[in-house]
Amino acid sequence: MTVGRAPARFKRTARRNRRNGDSIPRPPPAAPEEEAGSSVDGLRLPSEPAAILPKDFFLVDSLELAPRLLGKFLRRDDVVLQITEVEAYRPNDSACHGRFGITSRTAPVFGPGGHAYVYLCYGLHTMLNVVADKEGVGAAVLIRSCAPISGLGTIEERRGQKTEKPVLLAGPGKVGQALGITTAWSNHPLYTPGGLEVLDGPAPEKILVGPRVGIQYALPEHITAPWRFAIAGTPWISAPKNTLHPP
Q: What is the pLDDT of residues 206-242, one digit of tens each?
């Protein structure tokens, strides 16, 4: 199946497309006859319409779930994003919010895998996490960066920024803003139709790993743990990039 016959929401168009919220390209644009499922700039095209991932997909250790989420899609309304960078947060992890125990803020991270855990960073940035493992474990995967697949006009409006460059979605606060979510989305099941969904997508050909960002308060062994994962070869990842390397 050629890219030209791909489902509308994933259709690749010329880079200088109109900013009308229709599907947009993953940079750089590929030749129109490129086969679906192939790799472009580290990102892969879906070969068929993406299905919502089942609950069982998320019921694994966050360190296993994190790299598995790379290449998957987030969908809310007309906005579809492809996940390009994540971080794993585990039980007994001094950088994980679960270290505080169950509170009104952290209760969602102790819920069953496949639910959203959304919190405010510095009271400003909305951070989307995907809860991992079984109920009561207290683990999650932070969505650090994404690439836009459709709904560019909506993304730009929510971000207050008109650009197709990676700065649009390179950072967890930017992802939350682009999706238009608030902390009210915590506990939302990401495996049910409607609202915010995680869709299946092609696994990346190569990934990068490195230490997580902004956790200087954690224990030394957790500061240096290589629990940050990104798709290799794509510019749609956040800083710092020089700490990422092949596994």
A: 999 999 999 999 999 999 999 999 999 999 999 999 9
* DSSP H or E stretch at residue 172: helix 172-179
Residue 246: predicted pLDDT: 98
Q: Which of 180, 98, 194 is nearest to 142 (CA)?
A: 98
Ramachandran region of residue 125, left (φ > 0), alpha (ψ -120 to 50) or beta? beta
Confirm if 166 and 82 have CB atoms less than 8 A apart.
Answer: no
**In which element (H, E) is residue 221 found?**
helix 220-223
Output the pTM of the full model.
0.83
Cite the beta strand spans of the chain per DSSP E: 39-40, 43-44, 73-76, 79-89, 116-121, 125-132, 139-150, 196-199, 207-210, 228-231
